[in-house]
Amino acid sequence: MQKIKIRDEYIKLGQLLKLAGLVENGADAKTVIQDGFVKVNGETDTRRGRKIAAGDIVEYDGSKIQVE
C-alpha cells in the first residue's frame, strides 16, 4: 500500500490520483472517477472533488493509497 502524506486538511480525489502517479492528468482522473473505477474507503465514489483526509484509503486499478 502506497502512503501519501498531505500538508493540508484534505486533498481532492482527482488531485490525489495525479499525485500518486496513477493517472497522467486531470482529464484522466475525471474519466476513471466518473466511470466508477475508484473506491474510497471500500465504496465506489464518482465525485472528482471528493475531499480525502488523513486515514482515508483510495483504491484504483489494483493500487491502494493511504492518506496520512
Structural descriptors:
68 residues; alpha+beta; Structural Genomics Hypothetical 15.5 Kd Protein In mrcA-pckA Intergenic Region, Chain A; five-stranded mixed sheet; two-stranded antiparallel sheet; 2 helices; 24% helix; 34% strand; globular
Helix and strand topology:
Layout: E1 2-4, E2 10-12, H1 13-19, H2 26-34, E3 38-40, E4 43-44, E5 51-53, E6 57-60, E7 63-67
Parallel strand pairs: 1-7
Antiparallel strand pairs: 2-5, 3-4, 3-6, 6-7
Helix pairs in contact: 1-2
Structural description of this entry:
The protein has 68 residues and is α+β, with helices and mostly antiparallel strands. The chain has a single domain, classed as Structural Genomics Hypothetical 15.5 Kd Protein In mrcA-pckA Intergenic Region, Chain A (Roll), CATH 3.10.290. It is 24% helix and 34% strand. It has helices at 13-19, 26-34, and strands spanning 2-4, 10-12, 38-40, 43-44, 51-53, 57-60, 63-67. Helix 1 (13-19) crosses helix 2. The protein is globular. The two termini are 12 Å apart.
| Order of SSEs | EEHHEEEEE
The N- and C-terminal alpha carbons lie at a distance of: 12 Å
Poorly predicted spans? none
Summarize the main sheet.
5 strands, mixed
What top-tier CATH class fits best? Alpha Beta
Number of domains: 1
Number of E-state strands = 7
Provide the helix percentage.
Answer: 10-25%
Tell me the CATH superfamily.
RNA-binding S4 domain
Characterize the overall form: globular
Going by CATH, the architecture would be: Roll
Mean pLDDT: 94
Q: Approximately how much beta-strand content do the residues carry?
A: 25-35%
Briefly note the CATH topology name.
Structural Genomics Hypothetical 15.5 Kd Protein In mrcA-pckA Intergenic Region, Chain A
Coarse structural class: alpha+beta
What's the total helix number?
2
- The strand line-up of the biggest sheet is 1-7-6-3-4
Question: How much is the radius of gyration in Å?
Answer: 10 Å
